[in-house]
Predict the 3D structure of the following.
Amino acid sequence: MQENINIKLVADLNDRQLNQLVSILNYDQKLRQSLCSQKKEITVKTFNAKNNAWAKNNQAKLYAIMNKTHAIGMISLSHINLKNKKANIGYWLTSRHWGKGITSKAFKQILAIAKDNKIKYLTCTIPKDNIASLAIWQKFQAIIKQKGENIIPIIRL
Ligand SMILES: CC(C)(COP(=O)(O)OP(=O)(O)OC[C@H]1O[C@@H](n2cnc3c(N)ncnc32)[C@H](O)[C@@H]1OP(=O)(O)O)[C@@H](O)C(=O)NCCC(=O)NCCS
C-alpha cells in the first residue's frame, strides 16, 4: 500500500476528496478521541473555512495524505518562518490505516517540500504518551528534547 501514498494540497482536492476528510473527522471515533475533538459535526464548508483561517493565522500549508485518489489524512507545515528557516509539522490519519507506515511516508514527502522551501529546522509538540507520533520523528533522526509533559523533537535538514 505504501507505494500508493502521496500528499496533495488540500486546496487542490475535489469535492469527493474533501468529503472523505470531513467524514473521517466526523465519524472516526478513535481518531476523534486522539484529537480530543468536540461533539459537533462539521461540513465541507466549515472545514474549508477553518482550514483557510488556520493556514492564514499560522503561516501554514495544508496537505491531504492520499492513498491513490482517496484522501485518508492530513499533514501540514505551519509556523513557517523563512527568515529563521523554521517550521512545524502536524498530522493525523484515519485510524483504519494506523500502524502501516503511511504517515511516515507522508512525513518524508513533507520534509522534501520543506527542503525545497529552504526550511532547515522542523519541530512540533508531542504529548509524552504519543509513542507512534514520536517514533515518526525518531525515524528521521530528530533530536529529542523534553518540556514538561511534552516531547519536542527537532529535525535539521
Ligand atoms: C500519530 C499517527 C499520525 C501515526 O500514524 P501511522 O501512519 O500509524 O504511523 P506509522 O505507521 O508511520 O508509524 C510510525 C511509527 O510508530 C510506530 N507505531 C505506530 N502505532 C503505534 C502504536 N500504537 N504503539 C507504538 N508504536 C506505534 C510504528 O511502529 C512506526 O515506528 P517504526 O517504523 O519504527 O516501527 C496516527 O496514530 C494518528 O493519526 N494519531 C492521532 C493524531 C495524532 O496523534 N497526531 C499527532 C499529534 S502530535
